[in-house]
Amino acid sequence: MESSFLEIDLLDTNEEGKLYVVDSLNNLNKLHLCSDGSQHLLTAQEEENTGGLMTWSSISCQHLFFVTLIIILIVSLALVSFVIFLTIHTGNKIDEVTSRLAFERKNTEDLKKIINIILKHLNQSGI
Q1: How confident is the model at residue 55 (pLDDT cuts 50, 70, 90)?
Q2: Residue 115 CA to chain centroid, in angstroms?
Q3: How many CA atoms lie within 13 Å of 88's alpha carbon, on the beta-carbon side?
Q4: Are 10 and 23 in contact (CB under 8 A)?
Q5: b/e sequence 73-96, b meaning 16+ C-beta within 10 Å
Q6: What element of type H or E holds 116?
Q7: How far apart are CA 108 and CA 101, in angstroms?
């Protein structure tokens, strides 16, 4: 560790404080030496150094992840609800069109019967 980077009077702090300061300085040194591509190695080392305790950055990252996950789930639920609504609405429209077609088919058959009756009457009368 370079003393020119950060100088701290370690004599005034207690033993735990000394360990915390040294660990913090090591972490700062690692942050300045590591590139962005190797940051995942730093987080694994930080977890080992802290004994599995979570840092504020990891807590905020997890919080952001859960908030994003909840928002995605809400949007997904809204989309699924909309698809269900459209499916029901489309089914109702198909039923309506089917009933109209059945009614028109019945009317067409009735018109054919009337035309046949008129043609038979005209053929019998000889007009």
Answers
A1: low
A2: 62
A3: 5
A4: no
A5: eeeeeeeeeeeeeeeeeeeeeeee
A6: helix 56-125
A7: 10
* CB 39 within 8 Å of CB 61: no
Please report, for residues 63, 68, 79, 81, the alpha-carbon distance to residue 75 in angstroms, rounded to integers and kept in the order given: 18, 11, 6, 10
**Closest of 31, 23, 19, 30 to residue 49, by C-alpha:** 23
Give 42's Cβ-side CA count (13 Å radius).
19
Please classify residue 8 by burial: count the beta carbons closer than 10 Å to its beta carbon, then call 0-12 exposed, 13-18 middle and 19+ buried.
middle
pLDDT digits (tens, 9 = 90+) for 5-27: 444 544 444 666 677 777 777 77
Local structure of 64: helix, strand or coil: helix
Residue 83: CA atoms inside 13 Å, Cβ hemisphere, count?
Answer: 6
